[in-house]
Amino acid sequence: TLQNSAFIRANMHKFLYYILPLLLMLAGATSCSSDDGPDAPPEPSVSVSRTVLVYMIANNNLGSSYHSDERDIQEMLKGVEGGKLNNGRLLVYHNRPNNNSAYPPQLLDITEHGPKELKAYTDAGGICSVSPERFREVIADMKRLAPADDYALVLWGHGNGWIISPGDIKSRSFGPDDSTWISVPAMAQALEGERFQFIYFDCCLMGNIEPIYEIRHLTDYIVASPTQLGIDGMPYDMNVPMFFKELPDLVQAAKNTFDSYHGSMNQMCVIDTRHLDDLAAASREIFSTLSRYPSANEINTLQKLGKYTYSMLRYDATIAHDMDQYMELLCTTAGTPDLLTKWRETLDKTVVYKATTKTSIDFPAFSITRYCGLGSYVICNADDITFREYDTLAWWTDVVSAAPAYSVK
Length: 409
Fold this sequence. Notes:
Layout: H1 2-31, E1 48-57, H2 61-64, H3 68-79, E2 89-95, E3 106-111, E4 114-120, H4 132-145, E5 148-156, E6 158-159, E7 174-177, E8 180-182, H5 184-190, E9 199-202, H6 209-214, E10 221-224, H7 236-243, H8 250-260, E11 267-272, H9 276-287, H10 296-300, E12 304-310, E13 315-322, H11 323-334, H12 337-350, E14 351-356, E15 375-376, H13 382-386, H14 394-398
């Protein structure tokens, strides 16, 4: 016993130096073990330079009939090969066709090793993929699962410009998830407070002043078309590398899309939104001089770009004329050429890229002789002010309503 006690005293320093710290470390690990179970919070993702989110609404004929979603995801996988993500992340919120419990919406991480599901969603409780709640949820998930120095957004689906349908017809602007759409004002409200490096509309009719002005505070640059685009949309294999350059090359991305149609009818533009408030102020000055509605003959001289067709309502409306020619007409009517010069100087700063074929999908019988890069709705009479709730748009409130001729009595 005395020998054992002497041994312990002689070796106590080794115990204190080697064994005790090990025991304390093990005890600490044991006390924290409950945080490592299935309910433990996920490890935070490592922040990257840029995360681009493709918000893909394919629960419609684009997915079920044309399978455009599958083709575009395959193009994305080609686009990220060879390190072209440049320390970035490419996510896809995939609202799949035939959406149900077997095919729920999913958030995908597009990597060089293939797509990886980050999260599956449920549409329970009336929340669908074009609801404001789902938009906010997906943006929050993007920031949590793929944090980055900056973010960008691609909106993939059908587009109808600023059109909002009244009554029992669902609001129409972007979508649809089955038969449900979201209007641009509702989208802007859902994304309020967010900031994107750019927003790319891979859909039709969004390159018009009304939807672009509505979301101007969300981003510095918008890529879009004021007219219809073909089913193929943009070439993701070519454009993804453009998105992940240190400074996104949006002009080249828009050019890639334009060129990918090989001369088929299409129009593209890149808009610097930082000048849109100045363009709005210059436009408001022009409208404030307008004392009468343009005549039908005058309107017929304007370049038609895009139209809205909805067979259920048996209505076919031109919603996009060339904006420069429209402002030219208003200034000619009011005799204010100096205002037109000022307006055009601002337009040149706003539109950084534009390209058009000789005709548009909507009006193949009419040659395109004027294209400034932006389309605009033209008011011909009092009924046009409230057509599809045009008078609820920010562009009406801030700009067009300044026209004395359009005063609503």
